[in-house]
Amino acid sequence: MLTVAIVYHSGFGHTDILARAVAQGVGEAGGTPDLLRIAPEQTDFADAFDRIARADAVIFGSPTYMGTVSAPMKAFMDASARPYFAKAWKDKIAAAFTVSGSPSGDKLNTLTTLAIFAAQHGMLWIGTGQAPGNNDDLSAATEAENRLGSFLGAMGQAANDSPDVTPRTGDRATARSLGVRVARAAARWQAGGAQAA
Ligand SMILES: Cc1cc2nc3c(=O)[nH]c(=O)nc-3n(C[C@H](O)[C@H](O)[C@H](O)COP(=O)(O)O)c2cc1C
Fold first, then answer.
1. For 81-131, how does the pLDDT look when each residue is reduced to its tens digit (9 = 90+)?
2. What is each CA distance from 120 to 26, 55, 132, 156, in whole angstroms?
3. Which atom of ligand 1 is the closest one to the Cα of 11?
4. Do 176 and 25 meet the contact criterion of CB atoms below 8 Å apart?
5. CA-proximal residue: ligand 1, atom 20 (nearest)
6. Is the minimum distance from the CB of 49 to ligand 1 under 6 angstroms?
7. Hey, which residues does 38 pair with through a beta bridge?
């Protein structure tokens, strides 16, 4: 069975909610999710690197802080120079999700940053593959899947409510679908590799 590592930081619990929705999607698609939450002051990532090396796919998650990834996420990224030089993550499937307070909040930059990070590692990027949610009916828009209309990765918006309230059901469904899509892509990639061997 294939494993999907979900590597993320969450300062106040909102990104954690999306990480769990992503994990649910991975499980529903027949994969095994491995949730790896980065701690605020973490500097030792050896265990995370070992688990990522064993994973078939990796989904990165970060809150959007000051228009980009959070500092703990960046610490993880900078520390990944060791697997980078060993090409340890090359040809693994990759994807990402983020949460911001504002509807935009400049969070596309967070996903772009993570996509470039994955590209530097030689990983294969998977977007949402989802059409934008129904924003014609504003009363229903907050519950629509991919309501924020992101193709590069899953986006959520949390405002200042508790993680019990936000990100709301539409954003959780978007994250779940990303987990399903990545697990299926990893399975196809694995099967194709076996055929090519
Ligand atoms: C230091 C800091 C910077 C933030 N910067 C932004 C930002 O640039 N854009 C935005 O929309 N929200 C911003 N926010 C709001 C967070 O993205 C939002 O509260 C998110 O839900 C936090 O996720 P978390 O609970 O997983 O930490 C910021 C929050 C903090 C604490």
1. 999 999 999 999 999 999 999 999 999 999 999 999 999 999 999 999 999
2. 24, 18, 28, 25
3. 27
4. yes
5. 100
6. no
7. 9
- Tokens for 109? 């930059």
Give the per-residue pLDDT at 75: 98
> Hey, CA dihedral for 192, 195, 196, 197, is it positive or negative?
positive
> Rounded CA gap, 80 and 56, in Å?
17
Name all domains of the chain by residue range, CATH numbers in brackets.
3-196 (3.40.50.360)
Residues of the chain with pLDDT > 90, as a percent, come to: 88
Rg (CA), the chain: 16
Atom of ligand 1 nearest to the CA of 104: 11
Q: Whose C-alpha lies nearest to ligand 1, atom 9?
A: 105
Question: Per residue in 158-185, pLDDT tens?
Answer: 987 899 888 999 999 999 999 999 999 9
What confidence tier does 18 reach under pLDDT thresholds 50, 70, 90? very high
Q: Cα dihedral sign for 145, 146, 151, 154? A: negative
- State if residue 176 touches ligand 1 by the CB under 6 angstroms criterion: no
Token pair for residue 71? Answer: 């500092």
